[in-house]
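I'll show a typical protein example:
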Amino acid sequence: MKRIVFRSIALIIAVALGSLSAGIVALIKDVPDIDEIKDYTPVQGTKVYADDDTFLGEFRIEKGEYIALSRMPQHLIQAVVSVEDSRFWDHKGIDFIAIMRAITRDVQVGRFKEGGSTITQQLAKVVFLSPEKTITRKLKEAFLAYKIERNLSKEGILELYLNKIYFGRGAYGVEMAAKVHFGKSAADMTLAEAALMAGVIKAPSRYSPYSNLDGAKERQLIVLNRMKEEGYITEEQSAESYKHPLYLTSMRTERFGADYFLEYIRRYLEDRYGDDLIYKGGLKVYTGLNKTMQIEAAQSLQRGLRRIDKRKGFRGVLGHRTVSPDEEFKNVEVFKKVVLKEGDLAKATVLRVTASTATVKTKGIIGQIHADDAKWARRIIDTKGTLIRQRRKVRLNELLKPGDMIHVRVKDTSGKEPLFILEQEPLVQGAIVAIDPLTGSVRAMVGGYDFSKSEFNRAVDARRQAGSVFKPIIYAAAMDSGFTPASIIIDEPMVYDSGKFGDWKPQNYDEKYQGATRIREALIHSMNVITVKLIEDIGLNKTIGLAGRMGIRGPFPDNLTLGLGSISISPLEITSAFTVFAHGGIRRDPVTVRYILDSAGRVIENSQPMEVRAISPETAYLITSMLEDVVKRGTGWRAKELHRPVAGKTGTTNEYRDAWFVGYSPELVAGVWVGFDNMTTLGKAETGSRAAAPIWVSFMKKALPEVPVVGSAEESPENKPFQPPEGVVTALIDPLTGLLATHETEKQVEYFKEGTVPTLYSGEFYRNLIQRQKEYLKNIPVGEDDQ
């Protein structure tokens, strides 16, 4: 009997061992081959460089930016090892002591929980396996870890690990994480920063210092304590690092500032060279983008769009959470967890609120919003922009309540508590492009408020009605057709037969008529009727032909509405066209790529854009001269703030759907567009002058070289005014008649092409005739024709 029992037990054991062996064999067969990491070298994608040959971005199959272990600071390596795998240097890929601790915890909590994984196991999971939490996957992970340890050195494992893992906010690998969080290379991270990053690895979303600073600091303290226990740092170093405030990068401008441009470059390269060469070919692309201009363009656009959006009204809070103000105040540390920079944007929670003051908490810091810094929120609107109600005075306790989550901007950090301004993320969009008129090189390009929320590049791909920003092209065609800036055109009611669409009656923006008007004045004040008359006189075909030579590709409307800018264009297109005026009539296509090197350092593309004579130097200068007056006396008046020679033109379309300003100095041309993607109105009076020009001025202040103002003692050649070419002459004219001035008339200097100066002198007869006509037209009721 005993023998039968013994044989039965032996048979059961044999079957079990056989099944286990078969299972292990099947499991091993299913384990991936580690050859791809055995001799791992990062795939060389395409690197993109700015105008000063500094790194701008990279296109790679693999996520992140690779950094060698030898360049990583020792305290970063120690921080990661201390908190993630303290026995890393001793085990062979599997830490049985850690596994037993994890199993004990799993039994205690009554469920299978991730834990006990070594750095090598984590690398195996990241590179080869799915994130599922199953026994099978854990066994595969352990076996792979063993294979990796047999084939790679500890240093090699750690280097791969720190370049592969996810740190949150779209950052893969420690190099990208350092740039995203601190705006620096991982090589330059401090002990405090390294401990924070090491703490994030466990749960990047939960411990992000941007969304949960308190949690991130708690985790940082755990890392510092583990480093102290392992003997890497002292008690003093731990305490000092924990109390050291963090300089978190404001990534909306610093990280995403060039993303629209990089995406434009990526699309260009894909079309020209194909995916394989871009993502695996080790190309180096050198562009003309200027980093300083690019960051300023992004910041200027964002500031401007927030101002416009706030003028429409307050759309309400972001959300609400239950808070205990007393607890929140109790949790504020005696030291600052993070450094606040004036102008930074952040999410904040309202703790207390009265009519005049709201107490808010952001990034572990408590500060105040005063009613004066929220007075823009008098208008309450819904998400479609419809007005719900409007108050004469802002009372914060009618806008906010404790627990509300809002956007704030840091106003002042000099006092005991920081002061904040109530903000909201805009729905309105915009774009800005800057081009060097001499080379055609694109110096800055921003295609929207935030690339991370909308990748649509409005600078290139948005085709919006041009409005009056197209008028200088029509006036250039007029200058080529025998008109001069002094030519007189009658501003009067006009009616055109539009066939089945009925009569068309173009009107000026102010719905008034000025009678006999010089062309210079018509462009300065953007007069619609005179522009339509000009295009009617010179002909659509001639205007369209000149626009084409200047780089406007159409399609063009086949009617006189072109005079009011009914053509749809992109910001890049119209900005490039204005470089023709700034460069003496010569056109170069926009240049984004200067040259490209292959992996062997050979030049495979070298940009040599052709110069095309689009208009004469004389015509270019006459338009520039008139556009200078648009700034001095017309709708572009805001640009006077630069105190240097600039020319420009505003544009506003029907129902305020689009606002434009394109302007230039001798050194730089920049164009700004503002509008909603869904063609919603920007709001009454949101003209090119009010909505777009301030963004342009803000950008140009920083973008133009810091040189003395014209007329100052240190006047520099770089701050030169626009120079008239040899074929342009001046004459004194009577500004009322456009004829040559006499001792009895007013006098004004006017520019002419040689041979086009008036031959008649102004006299009492002409002046009286024009004056009587002006008086008559001023009294015509709006909308009445001249029958």
Summary: The chain has 25 helices and 28 strands. Residues 14-29, 251-256, 706-714, 783-787 have pLDDT under 50 and may be disordered. The radius of gyration is 34 Å.
